[in-house]
Amino acid sequence: MFELRARDGLARIGVLKTKHGRISTPTILPVVNPHFMPISPNEMLRMGAQVIITNSYIIYKDEKLKEKALKNGLHSLISFNKPIMTDSGSFQMYIYGSIDVDAIEIVKFQNEIKSDIGTILDVFLEGKYEEMKKGVIETIERARESVKYKGDMLLATTVQGGTYKDLRRRCSRELAKIDADLYPIGGVVPLMEKQRYADLVEIIITSKRELPPSKPVHLFGAGHPMVFPIAALLGCDLFDSSAYIKYAKDDRLIFPDGTAHLNELEELPCSCEICSKYDINELKEMEREERIKKIAYHNLWQIFNEIKRVRQAIREGTIWELAERKAIAHPSLIEAMAILRKYKKWLEKWENISRKRAFMYTGSNSIHRPIVYRLNKRIMERYTTFFKNSVVINEARKPYSRNKRLTELEANCIVKSPMGAIPLELDEIYPVAQSLFPKFIDSDTRNYARKIFKKFYESLKGNENEKEYDIRKIISVADYQFGKGAGQALFKGKIEIIKSKKTGKIRNVISNGEHVVSMRAHDGFFTLKMKGAIRLHSHFSFPKMRIVVKDDAIPFIRDGKNLFAKFVIDCDDGLRPYDEAIIVSKNDELIAVGQTIMNRDEMLSFNRGMAVKIREALKTK
Length: 621
Fold this sequence. Notes:
The protein is α/β, with parallel strands linked by helices.
């Protein structure tokens, strides 16, 4: 039903399958009112729409619309032959206090009119804790009952709870036990209208932590481009909003970094097909209905363009940079980005080992990305010194080891960098070598890096294990990447290091005549060979570096086939996306070595999609 195709941490490109076609996420669902469609759904297709959302309650309460929908189906009524999601009337219940529709009846109705994705009638409230608690309990109970009547329609069960974290956790945890197909996060429109983005981030994270990673998360009512990057960064897959038409009715134009009233503009800072065709005065002088339609067109173009920008950022590994740059557009978004600092330990478990693009500094938030947290944590826990004495090196040109004088020093060389303390042996790993910082960084970053450096430097203990630089390097990288002690396990006896003739960088390592690892040029990490996997399998106790698979999958893996999530029994919780991993049977028999696509939580949740790309299988005798 939902399959992972690409990822950048929690942000992901996925495919959601429905009766009327596939939806590539993240994406926006424009709200379509069956009574008022200034832009037809088929026109939206041309602009980039893959799916739309309409309100089943509005159709249910209008006898003519209801009759047509029941007779010919929702898609005929809306004249749209692509996926359609329906809301249930929860927002109307919130606005008007109560609505005369039964929670089960509205789910049955959505199924009867052939909605691709239906939604339960959740309880959307704002108020005191006890009132919100009752609403959450009622929402959970309605979800449990509603799922029995979904038929072949996908069903969305909405997470409620206001800004109360314990209620959001409870609601998410209980809904996760239900056989639902996707999980909207509801009750956030009032927060977005008041630009309380920090509260929005807290709600998304609180909900997301309890929801199954194999199911899409829909952020209800989020239709402004400003929130797409940070919401996608936190794992939101679907967005919807009627903002494009609501703003148009008020002569407001949506832009990626905010909105502007038509009367505030002297020219149109946009090149969409509306702004390219009309100048500002022509737009102002139009009849009201025509002007609304033109502004709505412009607003949708901006929305779809930003969604495309988000998807591209996920594919190329720059979603953090995009979110940080976007945050500069509004003080409330700056506050929201700062909230993420509290959760970097949790965010790190979803973080890719490395990326296609360099780590780009954008400001004070960059040092708090989970990949920097991982870098500092692993160096602190896994780096072992080789000499009694240590020296501090102020940052030089990267890679630092280019300076042969440093590699020949009989001391532990620790570089003082904008990311903290970097041992010389780790100067080529991601994101150290693949990072761009300006000459002058902000004081918060500078002070934080200084604090991290001081903590690490004071923890150093001298050793008498002197080795030549290349040996120190491969041991340090192996320990950082696989775990402390990996270097000694991999590199025993006679070591032969093969370097690139062109660049002089390490490419392959041969230990006692066995090819154990290759070093990747793009991120400075090792690709693990089968001979190396055998050594690490013997050295590390179960479940370190292991992925345990079902017996049914073993013959296919031995034949070189990739490992899919549905065949995973268990996994080392320390493995991260794109880590090197050892594939084993239930009896810890070594089967293969490969590169993970998912982390443990995802492997145990998804029933579709590749979990590990198998590189080499151990041949049976």
